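Could you please consider the sequence and fold appended to this message?
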Amino acid sequence: MNTRDGTGMNAHNVRLGRLHDSVYTNWPAFVHAAGARVPLHTVKDGQDILSLPPSREEESPLEVLHVLRCLLGPLVESLIILDREAWVREALSGITETPYRVELVNLFDQATGSGRNIAIVVTPQV
């Protein structure tokens, strides 16, 4: 991985980030995908750990991570969107005397979905 001067991105600060759902099917798939992003040592006691059957100790944290990601992901996205809406409201109240209406609007016809589906719409109140 290349070090970008001044950005804090170096081998010590690398984060795994978002992975495709398919990599969570089994331990070797996860390790291969993670290893593509973060340098991993895959040799343990002279054997490639990917050739060994996964232990319960290795699979359990991965299962917990996946379940927490599924349960908490929508909640975290909702909190971020509500925080942005509150920030826009506060910013508008401090710079203008004209009242504005701030709404969260789904861009596509979805009752639930990603936070990327939501727009913050600001319109003057008349």
